[in-house]
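Lecture notes, part 5. Sequence design as translation. It can be helpful to think of inverse folding as translation between two languages: the language of shapes and the language of residues. The source text, in structure tokens, appears below.
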């Protein structure tokens, strides 16, 4: 019998459109001989809409933007089985979902909120759990844990919107004293390079703070590391494995939203031209980060490689994109794991993790 896979996408997030692109790519890659694919769309207002089982490929991303009047559902309905006496077992199967694949990017989806809901519903889901998702979304907390794990990374400082408003000059001076220029300003809880600015002087910094605070109440400022941008994919639960390393060569000053998702104005080199020793270092640091944040399922770990051979971890992405421009599936393709097989592996990891949790005693 086929596995009924609910693909959850959209979301109340600045990265809503990114999620749609990811969902289209993933659903078109799923082997429908093995899976029944059920689209579940979260609108920008937070409504959940359940679609009919897919019977063929998605031709246009706009097909995924289902209207709320189509079949709006309450999330709790995802794990409820029909109980009508006259309903046959195979009809009940048609209404249930075996595994959820959350393809949500950014707040209200990648940050542990949806993962917490799925935990309460006791549904298996692909990807990282509540804590790992939340910490992986919050760049400040992530970097604090990296520091505790002894991972080399750029220097950083963080600010809350309220303290910035109380004394803007003090915030700028702290950046200039502790980090200097150039530096990067980022919302603490955002991805896909949303709200990120590179600053070379005080005027840049002032504008960058204002932009970043549009997307979060907390921001992080990091020193700029001059080096190559390299990434590695990791999959697994307790025993993670790594892909080959890829390199990003942006044609702009840095790898921004447009370069990632719109104009494709970036060169991806897979595998990256690095030494065996450098690969070993990147692999070990990625697995250390994976375990330090209690990650599971999948993650893309991003690094800087300087001209003197030093490796700095930048961040991990707990739900990397699966768009045609995305690095994560390309890394695994070059490692020998085709796209559809990668999806199957991730679903199996989700089921294994869920089955392990069912052995835990919750009463005393």
């Amino acid at each position: 019998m086929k596995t009924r896979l609910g693909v959850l996408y959209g979301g109340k997030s600045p990265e809503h459109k990114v999620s749609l692109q990811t969902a289209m790519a993933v659903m078109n890659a799923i082997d429908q001989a093995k899976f029944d694919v059920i689209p579940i769309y979260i609108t920008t207002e937070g409504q959940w809409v359940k679609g009919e089982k897919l019977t063929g490929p998605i031709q246009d991303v706009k097909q995924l933007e289902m209207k709320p009047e189509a079949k709006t559902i309450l999330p709790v309905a995802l794990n409820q089985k029909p109980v009508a006496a006259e309903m046959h077992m195979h009809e009940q199967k048609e209404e249930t979902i075996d595994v959820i694949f959350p393809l949500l990017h950014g707040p209200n989806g990648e940050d542990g909120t949806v993962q917490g809901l799925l935990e309460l519903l006791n549904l298996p889901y692909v990807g990282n759990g509540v804590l790992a998702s939340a910490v992986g979304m919050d760049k400040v907390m992530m970097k604090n844990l990296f520091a505790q794990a002894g991972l080399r990374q750029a220097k950083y400082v963080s600010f809350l919107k309220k303290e910035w408003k109380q004394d803007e000059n003090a915030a700028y001076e702290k950046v200039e004293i502790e980090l200097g220029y150039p530096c990067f300003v980022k919302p603490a809880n955002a991805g896909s390079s949303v709200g990120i600015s590179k600053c070379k002087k005080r005027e840049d910094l002032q504008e960058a703070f204002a932009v970043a605070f549009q997307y979060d109440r907390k921001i992080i400022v990091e020193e700029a590391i001059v080096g190559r941008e390299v990434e590695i994919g990791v999959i697994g639960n307790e025993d993670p494995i790594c892909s080959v390393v890829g390199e990003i060569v942006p044609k702009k000053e840095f790898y921004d939203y447009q370069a990632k998702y719109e104009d494709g104005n970036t060169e991806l080199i897979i595998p990256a031209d690095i030494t065996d020793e450098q690969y070993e270092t990147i692999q070990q640091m990625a697995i250390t980060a994976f375990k330090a944040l209690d990650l599971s399922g999948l993650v893309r770990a991003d690094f800087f490689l300087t001209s003197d051979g030093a490796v700095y971890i930048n961040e991990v992405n707990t739900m990397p994109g699966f768009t045609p421009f995305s690095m994560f599936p390309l890394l695994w393709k070059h490692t020998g794991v085709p796209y559809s097989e990668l999806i199957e592996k991730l679903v199996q990891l989700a089921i294994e993790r869920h089955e392990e949790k069912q052995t835990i005693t919750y009463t005393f």
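The translated text above is only one of many valid answers, since several sequences can fold into similar shapes. The longest strand covers residues 241-250.
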